[in-house]
Write a structure and sequence with these properties.
The complex is a heterodimer.
Chain A: H1 3-11, E1 17-20, E2 23-28, H2 33-42, E3 50-58, E4 66-73, E5 80-87, E6 93-95, H3 104-115, E7 118-120, E8 148-149, E9 156-157
Chain B: E1 36-40, E2 52-58, E3 61-68, H1 76-80, H2 85-92, H3 100-115, H4 121-150, H5 153-174, E4 183-184, E5 187-188, H6 196-218, H7 222-228, H8 236-242, H9 247-250, H10 258-261, H11 282-308, H12 338-347, H13 349-360, E6 368-376, E7 379-387, E8 395-399, H14 401-406, H15 409-413, H16 418-428, H17 432-436
Helix pairs in contact in B: 2-3, 3-4, 4-5, 4-11, 4-16, 5-6, 6-11, 11-16, 12-13
Classes of the chains: A alpha/beta, B mainly alpha.
Chain lengths: 166, 437
């Protein structure tokens, strides 16, 4: 199935579809996310039955502040689709996709760990890569980066974003 | 996908509080007296690095298993957000350190798609060549560590011996044995060195007989078969539900391989097969990996022949994207380009300014997002790359196959013996650098 055909099939049901750089993206409301994922998984004309990846991006000055990104792959039709849904900084929650795609379990734990997005209905939403007692969610853009104090005249190596290079 | 959502890995655990609390009886709140909870790892020699498994045992039988990961987390993804696009390569290559070229390739393919550029034909071929050699070294490490863990120490020695031959080739080619940062945005950093093709040719001559040797040693070895056959079985359907890809999925009968399904770097023009088995157990995974090494050698040979007939640059000509210095590995292992140095230091002020801008800021990538994937030795390696138009990435997410495949571990060993845990972990072949990133 060509990109345009895939985009057209999806757009017939979920109209906010973008085709760019050889990739198809559908933007959804988080309320319809689970139903859409289940439909994409089971619909025989698209057969996107494999969830590759879940992650998020943080845009502190925008609304929505978080975009959660789901990468779907079809093992039979050899095509991909990106599903995105947004949520705000004050209400950083998403429905958990674990019942649609069991592989979402660890992927959502990682996203929770890094961004603090709560996946409602997840069976075990705990930190996965950081220690259980870690404070904060380090991949948020407003998370302080910290500097390194040194013994040399009480100076500090500044945080990486304040070093003036790159 | 019949039982989707019926049995989730880790679903029985309530992870709040101390991890060991997850083993308390849900009704009484006490630990069960008739079972024993043990820690396997994080420093157990056979956990492939720093993997910790919490096991609840009834005698020798594993009732529950909870993998605890993150001991090797180094914040690679966050780090890339504060470096230039080129510096990102040196970070991502350190994720799955057993297969560094694949990390570099997935990252560079993604950035190139954002830039909308094509790399020269010769660079494509060199990329395919190093990746397939890297697939062999990765499978050799998998085989060697499995041998060590099963008590077949000679297999460990042989596996690492052959891997060392390929590491020598990598060292001659890139100057480094690991973490090469060789594949760059717009091509590769340098051409094959003098005598490089000869060394690779020698490898192609030697390696098949060595692979035959492993098979003679192991295929019908009663202990090897006893430890692997019927162990850690995953059906193809269950693999797909759990996100498992690579040799583990192909050992269960699926032909999924991104090199065939969604070709990149011109893989569609190479003649090779995708080995599969149907049993879905640890033994089938071993056989699939062995066969994949042979197929990779076929690709290496074709790439080498085509390289002879494909002259040309190995880096894109566009000075705004490609590195202008034409490096080569010197006798001391450090690459340099005297002609380029003379040009920027003595002849052209503009060239020096351009060089300075390239080093400190590098490439500026148009805003957008891509998900670029390659078939790494362990399965689908994806990079979700977001740019906001600046000279450094806004977000790089590494979808590492080790991370996702490891999720299937409790599924394969709950109800089996402790000894099978070792075979199960090594047959999934996770690399903790990739799992924890």
């Amino acid at each position: 199935m060509s990109l345009e055909a895939l985009a057209a099939t999806v757009a017939a049901r979920y109209p906010d579809v973008v085709v760019a750089r050889g990739e198809v993206t559908v933007v959804l409301d988080r309320g319809e996310l689970l139903a859409a994922l289940a439909w994409l998984r089971d619909e025989p004309t698209v057969e996107l039955g494999f969830l590759s990846s879940i992650t998020a991006t943080h845009w502190p000055d925008r609304d929505p502040a978080f975009w959660v990104d789901y990468e779907l792959r079809s093992m039979t039709l050899h095509q991909r689709l990106r599903v995105k849904a947004g949520c705000s900084q004050d209400d950083a929650t998403m429905p958990s996709a674990t019942l649609v795609f069991p592989t979402a379990n660890w992927l959502e734990r990682e996203t929770y760990d890094f961004y603090g997005i709560v996946f409602e209905g997840h069976p075990d939403l705990t930190r996965i890569l950081l220690p259980a007692d870690w404070d904060g969610h380090p991949l948020r853009k407003d998370e302080p980066l910290g500097g390194v104090p040194t013994w040399y005249h009480g100076t500090t190596v500044p945080p990486v974003d304040q070093r003036g290079m790159a | 996908m019949s039982d989707t959502g019926q049995r989730l890995p880790g679903a029985a655990f309530d992870g709040a509080g101390d991890i060991a609390d997850t083993f308390r009886d849900p009704v009484s709140g006490d630990y069960r007296q008739e079972t024993m909870i043990i820690n396997m790892g994080p420093q157990h020699p056979s956990t492939h690095g720093v993997l910790r498994l919490l096991l609840e045992l009834d005698g020798e039988t594993v009732i529950r298993c909870k993998p605890v990961i993150g001991y090797l987390h180094t914040g690679i993804e966050k780090n890339t957000e504060y470096r230039t696009w080129v510096q990102g390569i040196t970070f991502v290559t350190r994720a799955d350190y057993v297969a560094p070229f694949f990390n570099e390739l997935a990252y560079c393919l993604g950035v190139e798609r954002l830039l909308g550029v094509e790399v020269p034909a010769r660079a494509q071929l060199i990329r395919v060549l190093v990746c397939e050699l890297n697939r062999i070294t990765s499978h050799l490490v998998g085989l060697a560590t499995t041998g060590l863990e099963m008590g077949a120490v000679s297999v460990m020695l042989y596996g690492l011996r052959e891997r060392e031959m390929i590491m020598d080739i990598f060292e001659g080619l890139t100057g480094l044995r690991m973490n090469h940062a060789f594949i760059r945005i717009g091509g590769v950093v340098m051409d094959l060195p003098e005598g490089g093709p000869r060394k690779i040719r020698d490898l192609i001559d030697i390696l098949p007989s060595r692979i035959d040797e492993y098979e003679t040693l192991l295929n019908d070895n009663p202990i090897w078969r006893e430890r692997h056959e019927g162990v850690a079985v995953l059906s193809a359907e269950r693999c797909l539900e759990l996100g498992v890809t690579g040799p583990v999925l192909r050992a269960a009968g699926s032909t999924a391989d991104l090199r065939k399904d969604m070709p990149y770097c011109g893989y569609e023009t190479f003649d090779f097969d995708v080995p599969t088995r149907t049993e879905g157990d640890a033994y089938a995974r071993y056989r699939v990996r062995i066969d994949e090494m042979r197929e990779s050698l076929k690709i290496v040979e074709q790439a080498l022949v085509r390289l002879m007939a494909t002259p040309g640059p190995v880096m894109i000509e566009d000075p705004k994207i490609g590195w202008q210095s034409r490096l080569s590995v010197g006798p001391d292992g450090i690459g340099n380009d005297p002609a380029y140095l003379a040009h920027i230091m003595e002849e052209s002020m503009e060239a020096l300014i351009h060089h300075f801008k390239m080093v400190t800021q590098g490439v500026r990538v148009p805003a957008g997002e891509v998900y670029s994937t390659v078939e790494a030795p362990r399965g689908e390696l994806g990079m979700y790359i977001v740019s906001d138009g600046e000279h450094r990435p806004y977000r790089v997410k590494i979808r590492d196959p080790s991370f996702v495949n490891l999720q299937a571990l409790p599924d394969t060993i709950e109800g089996y013996l402790v000894a099978d845990v070792i075979a199960a972990v090594s047959s999934l072949d996770p690399v903790m650098g990739g799992v924890d990133r």
